[in-house]
Amino acid sequence: MAQSQDKLQKALESIIWALAATVEARDPYTAGHQERVTNLSLVVASEMQLSEDEKQEIRMAAMVHDIGKISIPSEILSKPGRLNSVEFSMIKMHSQAGYDIFKNIELPWPTADIILQHHERLDGSGYPHGLKGKNIRQAARIIAVSDVVEAMSSHRPYRPALGIEKAMEEITDNRGILYDTDVVDAFVTVFNQTGLPLPQFEPDMIEEIARSIHESYRQSQHGKSVDEEPAMAQWADLPHYLKDSNRLQAEHIFKKLSRIGCTVHRVTGRDIKQVTFSENEIEIMAEMEHLRWNAERLFEGWVLGEKKDDVKKTTPYLVPFSELPEDVKEVDVLMVRNIPELLSNLGLEIRRQQRQTDE
Question: DSSP characters for 294-345?
């Protein structure tokens, strides 16, 4: 019985991860946002001494809190300038759209309600329903603050990152007004004692890694020319959509490492220490890579279970990770095993963080 429940739990988590990857395939500019919000929320939940069940509730909702963005046109999601009032109104619909996706799915957690409420504010100024105070679920109040801190600390198409100090100023200035007092206090405590688990990389890291991924691919395709395959071009001549694909892969490296509690740091003047991943960590990250690949294919017009003849001719990938042939799994595994060398060649070191969540 316990084994069956464990399998069911893993299946549910895999579905959540797949949905999270689907959102990011449409919105590469915020790739990793839901993962980082999840990590922040869990660290704060631990500081608040919440139960393991409460943490699991937060984890599952945080991973898909922006799932409703799949209903928003991609040109609005990635618009480089500020949104007009109509566009912002469309963005505000994503919490309701996310609720509609989950409301009829029977889960052990109130995931739909938490997604719906993650933009509500204590004073009733939030959306979509202007809920106040304790009428907002605790998990939603935690995710709301994590969402603000992560968004302000990260780059967006319409502005550079504002920084963690500005984010902390925002939540402390509005403590008890917009944001839950206990949640803000927990954020401040963690920030002052150990720092928050936000990405520790310079803005140009993603570009460096993306270029390195592209160069590794070119070297692996011996004898092919640009005429045969556009992806063989030098980086400067690479089509924009292929550059973006490489950047998304680079972002996803950080996401995979964050999932197992690692961060990336630039190192100068000394040897780089390469981490060794456990087999369990490799499997977790390999499955994430598979889900990322599937999400990209789905938004290029593929549909699981359809176009079977085309799938047979081209790739066995469009199946759940557990059903992949071993030789195909090994492709994803090899990509994970190559991450330490790829980063070390760029002067980047992977460091393990002390686990503060229930994982």
Answer: HHHHHTTT--TTS-HHHHHHH-S-SS-GGGS-HHHHHHHHHHHHTHHHHHHT
Strand (E) or helix (H) holding 351: strand 348-352
pTM: 0.62
Report residue 352 as tokens: 């393990």
> How far is it, in rounded angstroms, from Cα 92 to Cα 51?
31
| 252-298 pLDDT per residue, tens | 888 788 778 787 887 776 678 888 899 989 988 988 888 777 666 55
The angle, 0 to 180 degrees and rounded to 10, between the axes of the packed helices 52-62 and 33-47 is 160
Q: State the Cα–Cα distance between residues 346 and 241, nearest whole angstrom.
A: 24
List domains and CATH numbers for the chain: 2-193 (1.10.3210.10), 204-352 (1.10.490)
pLDDT digits (tens, 9 = 90+) for 216-229: 888 888 777 777 77
* Catalytic machinery residues: 69
